[in-house]
Write a structure and sequence with these properties.
The structure is a homodimer of 155-residue chains. The first copy, chain A, is mainly alpha-helical. In chain A, 55% of the residues lie in helices and 3% in strands. A two-stranded antiparallel ribbon of chain A has the order 1-2. Chains A and B meet through helix 3 and helix 5 of A and helix 3 and helix 5 of B. The first copy, chain A, binds a DNA duplex (30 and 30 nucleotides) through helix 2.
Chain lengths: 155, 155
DNA sequence: AATCGACTTCGAGCATGCTCGAAATCCTAG
DNA sequence: CTAGGATTTCGAGCATGCTCGAAGTCGATT
């Protein structure tokens, strides 16, 4: 997963320049790489199209930066790009679909809750295995652990 | 992640045939696809090399099946293929390196614990966002949620 | 012997989310 | 005007863990 510098994320800081920031500045202020900024745009995560200069360079406004930060937060919860895109589309569609947005969030919440249960179970499993090892080692019983030539009780 | 039919995994069941099972049978009894069985072998997850017939077909013995089941259990905990390979190598090296195996397991445990903390945090974040939405909707305040044309307080 | 399904190896493809490189363009300083 | 850094787009590459397809082989049955 993309690691976003948490110290850079929360507040995009006001865009001083009159007509928006360069992509490099936007990257610096959001904690997202320029590559990823472009990727997010291509992937359709952007609500309001980022403006361009006459020469075709992106100009990020405060609004854009804020939205990107929201995206990074959603990504940080493991929300897949596709889901964020759907969410962005809903937001872009304007007011009136808040229930749908909420449903999207709740669906993601369910995924995360399921993941949580899974990881908890994993931890339980691995702990069990470690316990077996510790027990055997403490008992000087290590030779009862699995060996290629002699299948034994423990793994 | 590979989904292993949990009803098929636990006990490989005795290998009736005199000289081991075909890969199809092994797949059926371990709940792993034939493709994946071959992949695991290529990936070096196997402790004892799976035997071959004169014609080059794999013959799985009970020992092999048991080890594969162990591999599936480790995979089920999210242990990466590389780590399982290292573990298999240690086991293949025979007795005497149990401390190293334990260290490997503990390292993985740490990963899983970290993952757990992360997912818990994610759940917290998404719950917070959902709360905001619920609150706005209940208060008939939905228009204070984010809209492309008018950056607002909530997302 | 011929057939036909199961099996072999090797390499490619898929999904995800970036990450990077190439070639061309922009723009700003000197 | 020119150099050189920043940006652009497009497409490829990377890591992971399978999953699949092609082309050829094995082997049991008829």
């Amino acid at each position: 997963m993309l690691e976003v510098d948490s110290r850079a994320v929360p507040e995009p800081a006001p865009p001083d320049p009159q007509e928006g920031l360069s992509i490099a500045e936007a990257a610096r202020r959001t904690g997202v790489s320029v590559h990823t900024l472009r990727y997010y745009e291509r992937a359709g995560l952007v609500v309001t199209p980022v403006g361009r200069t006459a020469g075709g360079r992106r100009r990020y406004r405060l609004l854009d930066l804020k939205w990107i930060v929201i995206c990074t937060k959603m990504r940080a919860t493991g929300m897949p790009i596709k889901a964020i895109r759907r969410y962005a589309q809903l937001v872009a569609a304007g007011a009136g679909n808040e229930q749908e947005r909420l449903a999207l969030l709740e669906a993601h919440r369910a995924e995360v809750a399921a993941k949580l249960a899974e990881v908890q179970e994993n931890l339980r499993l691995i702990d069990h295995k470690i316990d077996v090892y510790r027990g055997r080692l403490a008992a000087g019983d290590a030779d009862r652990l699995w060996a290629p030539s002699r299948p034994a009780g423990a793994h």
